[in-house]
Amino acid sequence: MNETTPIDPAALPLRDIHLPQDVSWWPPAPGVWLLVALAALLLVVLVVWLAQRQRRQRIRREALKEMQRLQQQWKQQPRPGETAAALSRLLRRVGLSYFGRAGFSGLTGTAEIDCLNRLVADDRRQLPKELGDWLREAPYRPAEALDAGEIEPWLQAVEHWIRALPQQVPGAARSCEA
Q1: CA distance 162 to 62
Q2: CA-CA distances (angstroms) from residue 30 to 21, 23, 71, 86?
Q3: 90: nearest Cα among 120, 118, 59
Q4: What is the pTM of this model?
Q5: pLDDT digits (tens, 9 = 90+) for 29-40
Q6: How many angstroms separate the CA atoms of 174 and 18, rounded?
């Protein structure tokens, strides 16, 4: 038998084991970049959508504020002639906002109410046709000829109608023609 000499491991010219470095968080993988880009795009779309929604609801919001101010004023100082005139102005401004001057400015009375009712799909929320004639005449009647009890139902009807208004679509031309 041949005897071999033992090898001393410390005498061998070997280096110690080197482990690979930990995986770095930078630069992110392509999938992470894609998710970041998608999240940024969704955020931009959401902000634009919310801004447009606010703009579209502006008419309804402003009309409702004016209506509440008018009702508060009516409760504090009931003046039938002034309230009728203010209610008429409010409806005219809403009509002009939705239809424009060319499509709405020449209408009065029942024709005005019919045109305004085209904005609201729910029949229960539409303005009564008699309101048009009343609004045309009431501001010009003597104060003692106006019944204060008939104004409250008109105020409520207009408020319900305003709450049912659709969003205004910018650039969408509406017409009062049948």
Answers
A1: 10
A2: 21, 15, 60, 62
A3: 59
A4: 0.70
A5: 899 999 999 999
A6: 76
DSSP letters for the chain: ----PPP-GGGS--PPP-PPPPPPSSSPPHHHHHHHHHHHHHHHHHHHHHHHHHHHTHHHHHHHHHHHHHHHHHHHS--HHHHHHHHHHHHHHHHHHHHHHHHHTT--HHHHHHHHHTT---GGGSPPTHHHHHHHHGGGS-GGGS-GGGHHHHHHHHHHHHHTPPPP-TTPPP----
Mean pLDDT score of the chain? 87
pLDDT of residue 121: 84
The alpha carbons of the chain give a radius of gyration, in whole angstroms, of 36
pLDDT, tens digit, for every residue of 64-107?
A: 999 999 999 999 998 888 898 999 999 999 998 888 888 788 88
Rounded to the nearest angstrom, the gap between the alpha carbon of residue 110 and the centroid of all alpha carbons in its chain is 29
Distance CA 112, CA 48 (A): 34
Residue 99, judged by CB atoms within 10 A of its CB (0-12, 13-18, 19+), counts as buried
